[in-house]
Design brief:
mainly alpha; 0% strand; flat
């Protein structure tokens, strides 16, 4: 997760095509985690994803992942 965070922070808009894969994985990891450290890392990664990518794309990923029945 640290690598994903660094990629989004340093590459910014260049990472715009990637949130479909990484955003879904981070959200699912956050939902399955029972460890506070993992939760914190996932939240930091998601925050960097949201800062570096198109807001509409991020919103679509959040909604689609949150509404999907099969994780």
């Amino acid at each position: 997760m640290n690598s994903i965070t660094k990629l989004y922070l340093h590459l910014g808009k260049t990472m715009d095509p990637e949130p479909e894969r990484t955003g879904r994985a981070l959200l699912l990891k956050l939902a399955q985690s029972t460890c506070a450290l993992v939760d914190q890392q996932a939240n930091l990664s998601l925050a960097s994803l949201m800062q570096g990518c198109n807001p509409g794309r991020v919103m679509t990923i959040l909604l689609n992942t949150g509404l999907s029945e099969d994780p």
